[in-house]
Write a structure and sequence with these properties.
This protein is mainly α. The chain is about 80% helix and about 0% strand. The longest helix has about 35 residues. It is globular.
Length: about 400
């Protein structure tokens, strides 16, 4: 009887963790579709580079202040309600994007989407970390793989369908479905306690104390190191993806469909890298691998920008997508390991504080592209591998995980 009860609990826990990964898949499906479709969206709504930069800057900047509150409340009693509310906002934002007729409407949908994704998706990540606190980097690898699968699916399906409005509608349906499943887990009591409330729920806790504690963590050099490197790593991840399709259309001179194919190659090969990373992290030192891959991208990315041949560009692009696998999951895993008792605050509060400056990078790149050309702006992304090569510690003993003790 006891054994059956344990097995039943294990199955329920596995199912809930799978649902969390599905939520990440949906979020990245939106992301992959959106960035592959950006040349189409740009032409349909008549956007310029400044407006594109604003689309990726204003929402994230506004979301910083909202998600900081989410992060602190998410470590207390408010975790359940933030996830539920975030799912509602996520679905509304996708619906509004589907019917947008101008820049203002699309910007509004992005403004709603950014903090909603923080509540629905990023807090789900914190829940996954809390469920298995001894396997942060391994579960982050699974989370990243689920996200990569979503990015590839979104870009590939858009490459076939080429209807960004319809796909935003599909994303709204998927998000609504995931929200219903989460509600079912909460109503039936199948959701684990980590999904209902955070680690501070049983303490003599206040919002003020939670905010004070979160700010205090930023005074730790170790914490600041990993957040800073995470922001710089994004130059070769989400920010590169944001401008990749536009680069192939405006600089390489290819069609929107060919640009979507290039995005699919980058994300598809990246998916393979994320999948292989899961067993790799059980065998190798994560930081050593991260430093090695940063060195490779330091060489490969300039070659990608310089070579004139489309075929060689696509081969190098695939290599970029393969070897940047693990950047996010390893660095994010280091953050959770450094802040084991503040999982929600780690991602939503501290991440947004340190990400405030980083949130302006897409706008800066857009402004450079508008005035000097996108080909010039793309060189700014080289700061990503340079920062990792400088900032990743070489000595052992700095927030190492179990997989790093040899």
């Amino acid at each position: 009887m006891f054994r059956k009860s344990v097995m039943r609990h294990t199955r329920r826990m596995t199912l809930f963790m799978f649902v969390l990964l599905v939520i990440e898949f949906i979020d990245e499906f939106v992301f992959g579709m959106e960035h592959a479709a950006m040349p189409f969206i740009r032409d349909s709504l008549g956007l310029n580079y400044d407006q594109i930069g604003l689309l990726f800057t204003i929402p994230s900047t506004i979301a910083i202040f909202i998600e900081m509150i989410f992060g602190i409340l998410g470590d207390g009693h408010g975790r359940k309600w933030i996830v539920i509310g975030g799912g509602i906002g996520f679905t509304i934002a996708c619906t509004l994007s589907a019917i947008s007729q101008n820049f203002t409407m699309l910007l509004l949908s992005f403004i709603i989407f950014a903090p909603s994704s923080g509540g629905f998706v990023t807090l789900s990540q914190a829940i996954l970390m809390d469920i298995a606190p001894d396997r942060h980097q391994q579960n982050m690898a699974r989370w990243t793989f689920a996200g990569s699968l979503g990015v590839v699916g979104g870009s590939l399906i858009f490459g076939i369908w080429n209807d960004w409005r319809a796909l935003y509608g599909v994303c709204a349906l998927l998000a609504g479905g995931a929200w219903v499943i989460i509600i079912w887990h909460y109503v039936t009591g199948l959701a684990p306690q980590e999904a209902v409330r955070g680690s501070n729920a049983d303490e003599d806790w206040s919002f003020r104390e939670g905010f004070k504690e979160a700010l205090g963590q930023l005074r730790r050099a170790e914490v600041l190191r990993w957040f800073t490197l995470l922001e710089f790593s994004d130059l070769m991840l989400d920010i590169l993806l944001a401008y990749l399709a536009l680069y192939f259309v405006d600089i390489v001179g290819k069609t929107e469909a060919e640009a979507a194919l290039a995005v699919a190659i980058w994300t598809g090969v990246g998916l393979i890298g994320d999948f292989l990373l899961i067993p790799l992290l059980e065998r190798v030192n994560p930081l050593r691998y991260l430093r090695f891959s940063a060195g490779l991208l330091f060489i490969l990315y300039p070659l990608f920008l310089i070579v004139p041949s489309l075929e060689i560009k696509l081969v190098i692009l695939g290599m970029l997508g393969f070897f940047n696998a693990g950047w996010y999951s390893i660095l994010q895993g280091q953050i959770y390991t450094t802040l084991p008792d503040n999982s929600a605050a780690a991602e939503l509060t501290l991440g947004n504080i340190t990400g405030f400056i980083g949130g302006f990078i897409p706008l800066i790149i857009g402004m450079i592209a508008e005035r000097a050309g996108l080909d010039v702006a793309m060189w700014v992304l080289m700061l990503g591998p340079i920062a990792l090569l400088i900032g990743i510690p070489r000595q052992k003993g700095i927030t190492m995980t179990a997989t790093e003790s040899e």
